[in-house]
Queue: 3 jobs
Job 1
Amino acid sequence: MKIGDKIDLGDRPLLLAPMEDVTDGTFRLACKRYGADMVTTEFVSADALTRGVKKTERKLQIDSRERPCAIQIYGKDVETMVEAAKIAEEACPDVIDINCGCPVKKVATKGAGAGLLRDIPLMLKIVSAVVKSVKLPVTVKTRLGWNEEGKVIVELAEQLQDCGIAALTIHGRTRAQMYLGEADWTLIGEVKNNPRIKIPIVGNGDVRSKEDAERRYAETGVDGIMVGRAAVGAPWIFKEMKEGVTLTESEKAEAIINLLRDNIKEAGEMSGILHTRRHLAATPVLKGLYNFRETKIRMLRSTSEEEIVSIIREATRQEEKKD
C-alpha cells in the first residue's frame, strides 16, 4: 500500500488509529516497536492550533523512530483548516490527515469531525483547500455516514478522491452508532471494489486479532487495516496480529511497565501515572486474576511508580502459576 509517491507501507499494513488522550508520542513509539506500520497523532484542533495554544502545539511533536507518522487535524472552517494544515506541515510529518469521523459530542455537534457528514459540500471544500495548500500527501478518515438513513460513503469516497486525497480510511459505523454495535464492513468493501476508486482504502472497526484482519482483507480487499480501541493498553497487538503469536503474560506486563516509565520520564511521576491510567484501565494483563476488580482499583488509585509496577508483576506471577 502506497500513500503518495514516497510512503510505501508494504502489503496488508496495520495502522494505529488516532485517538484523543491515547496516541501520544510514547504510545505511538510503543506500537511501532511491536510492528505498527504507520501511526497517527491525537487529533489536533485547527482552531486551537491557529491560536497558538501550547498544549495543542505539543501534539505536533514527532520522534524520528515513529515514522511514517501522520498528524490529524479537525475543524469546521476552510480558512482555519488551511492555516492549521500549513502549521502542521512545518512539524514535518509524513502525512496530513483530516478528521471527518470523530463522533464525540463536543466535536461532531459543532460541525467538525463526523459533523461534516451533515454538510458534505463543506467537507469537500475543506479537503480540497487543504490538499492544495500543502505539499505533503493528505488523507481523510471518516465514517459510513451520519446515521442509518444517511450512509453516503460510496459516493463520498469518489468525491473525496476527486479532491486529491492520497488515501481514505473508513470506520464501519455511522456517527449515530458512536462505537455501539458491530462495525459494518459491507460498504467499506463496496468502496474498495468500486472500479472508479484508485486511491488506497483502509478499513477500521472491530479488528482485534490476526483472524479478524485476515477475514476483513479476504471479504473486502482493503489495502490496509487501522486498529483503534483494541490497541489501548495492548500495544503488542500489532505483533500478535501480524505474526499470529500470543505474547506471554510477562512480555505483556513489561510492555505496560515500559509505557508507564516512558510517560514518567516524559512528564514526571504523577503526570506520567495519570497519563498512563487509560492504558492501565484497559490492559488485559490483570484480567485473569481472581481478585481482578480489587487489584485494578488499587492500581488505578496508586500514585507511585514502584507500587504500580509491583502490582502488575505480582498479577503476572499469579497468572503464570495457573499455567
Job 2
Amino acid sequence: MAKRKPQSGGGIPEWVLTYGDLMSLLLCFFILIAAFSEIKHPKEYRKVIDVFQDVIGSQGDVGTTPAEDPTANSVRQDKVELAAPRTAQAKPQQVPTEYPVGPEPKASKVQPGKRFALGGSIMFDPGSHALREDGQKMLRDEIAPRIKGLNYIIEICGHAFGVQDRSELDLQELSYRRARAVRDYLVSECGIRPLTLRVVAVGDTEPNVGRDGGIEEQGQNRRVVVIQTERLTDELNPDPYLTGRPTTRAGN
C-alpha cells in the first residue's frame, strides 16, 4: 500500500511567483510605453535616428521621423534616381556662356510696374468691331481726360469670346480690330498722342465669363479695356518727341 506524501508546510504556491513576475513585466512594459509616448529631447533623438540611418542605409517610411536629405545608399534614393528621366541624367553639365556686352543693354527695364484699368469695359456687339455710342461717350468723357497729356504708356486690350463672336474674322483678329477702333477714336476724336498707346489683342484667353455661363453673361467678354501702366515712353523710345536728339533711357 503506497504511502502518502507528507504535506508541505504553509509555504507560498509556485503559481504566485509566476503571477508576480508577469505583473512586474507588465508594469515595466507600461512604464516604457509612457516613456516613449513623448520625445523629451527631440534634438538628441534626431541625432540617434541619423546615426541609425547612416548605418543601415535607409530613411524609413510611414511613421518615422523625416530627414532633410536621403542618405547616399538608401533604397528611396536609388528609386528616385531610377525614376528620373534618362535625358536629365545624361545631360552634361552646362557652363554659363559669357556674351559680349555692348555699350547699351537691350532691356532697360524688366519689371513694367503696376497697371491700372481706366473707366469701365467698352462693350461691343456680337461679331462687330464698331464702336457703339456708349463706348464713344465713355472714351470721350471718362478715359480721355485722365490720360491726355500724360507720358505713360497706355495699353488698349481687346477681347473676343464665344459663338456669337464667330464671323469671317477669327477671335484674335476681332479682338485686335476692337482695340484698334478704340485707339483710333482716342487719337482722332480725343487728341491723345498715338505714341503713348499700345494695341493688345487678347483674343479669347481672358474671358470674364466661361463657357458654362449663359449667352447674355458671355456678352461681358466682348470688350476693350484701357489700362494705364507705370512705364514712360522715354524708357522705350530714344526720341519720343521727335526732336532729333535721343534722350538717355532710364536705367542705363
Job 3
Amino acid sequence: MDVLRRHFVAGTIAGITLFATGAAAATGTMAIYKDPQCGCCEQWAEAMEAAGYKVDIHDEADMSVIKTRFAVPADMEGCHTAVIDGYIIEGHVPLEAVRKLLSERPDIAGLAVPGMPSGSLGMGNDPQATYDVYTIAKAEGAQSTVYYQVRPAK
C-alpha cells in the first residue's frame, strides 16, 4: 500500500511540475519551415519538441517563398518560419516567448527574432545573450514592437 501511495504522490508531483513549467501547455502542431541544410533550425525545432510541442518539419529549398506565403516583413525575417495556432514564429524565438504568446493570445500575426542572434535558442543558447523578440503586426505597414526581451540573468 505504501508503494502505491508513493507512486501516486510522485506521479502527481511530476504532473504538477510539467504543467507549471509549461510543457503540458503545448496546444496544436507547430509546422516548422526550414532549409534542409540548416543545423541551427534543427536545434530550435528539437527544443520546441522537447518542450512538449508536436513538431512537423517541412524542408524547403527556397525559404523566400515561405516568407512571402506568411507575409513576414523583410526587416523581421529570421532563419526559419514556424506556425502554431494561427501565429507565425519567425526565427530563433525563445521558448519563453512562445509560451507567453500562446498563453496571452494577443491580436498580432506572430513573433520574430530578425537575423540569427548569437546565443539565441539554436544559435548556442547562451545565458548571456541579449536580443529582442518583436511582434509581427496583422495590419500591413503597422509598426512592430518589442514583445519580449532576452537579457542575462543577474
